[in-house]
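In this supplementary section we document a worked example of the pipeline. Step one takes a protein sequence of length 285 as its only input; no multiple sequence alignment statistics are reported here. Step two produces a three-dimensional model, which step three serialises into structure tokens for compact storage. The input and output of this example are shown verbatim.
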Amino acid sequence: MSVKKIPKIIVVLGPTASGKSDLAVELALKNNGEIISADSRQVYRGLDIGSGKVTDEEMRGINHYLLDVVSPKEIFSASDYAKLARRAVDNIISRGKLPIVCGGTGFYIDALLYEDSVAPIPPNPEIRKKIDKLPTEDLAKMLSGLDPDRFASIDTHNRVRLIRALEIVLSTGKPVPKLEKKLRYDAKKIGIMWPLSILDERIEIRLDQRLKDGMTDEVERLHKKGLSWKRLYDLGLEYRYISLYLRGKISYDEMRNQLLTAIRQYARRQMTWFKRDKEIKWIRK
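The serialised model returned by step three reads:
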């Protein structure tokens, strides 16, 4: 009886501003590949400059999937992502090409790669209703006390994930479960790692370039098209701090400096998540 081979894929990962997209495109050009984005904000239409969405020029003719698949007014979960990403993997393989997953959202990558990697704990509407009244900062503080491991790997500005994590913890009285993982794919994981000081510098250079490229105008345009200030705030990082600036709650310099600090902190949380995975082969810059 023959053993069914699981499909081969490549995963390119790392913190924000590490150069993942460029490496993924190079690998795709050399290996007859196509790219599946694994970014929790690039799935949303209109979140382009702020999310660092790859441009047509940067794609260099390589097909990209899981970009612009949903309205930013909608909630898009890791399980939603896994469903669409697996469909994209099947599509790419069916045409004799190599799927290359590229992104920095570790939870999305795990949801795609592993069976049952999203906790199968049912929603608890009563708990959700109570904690949804709390500010995002309070949700993050609560999670840090109740489940430090989950807190270390979560985007602390993402209300949806914070609420889901707290819902699980408060429902079960235990940390978010670390499920036994069974790989769906034969995945070669390649990570990009920079010295912290250089990564911090890259983040600052990229942030200032995005501000010059019209990131503030992008956020203002999204609001004029009907995206609420609350939703922009909940989308985190660039959308959060720029929305505060546009509402007159902080100055431009405060927005830029607070955002820079927040992005650097986020990059550290990404590395905390990825460093737990011993299967990743790191390219050290």
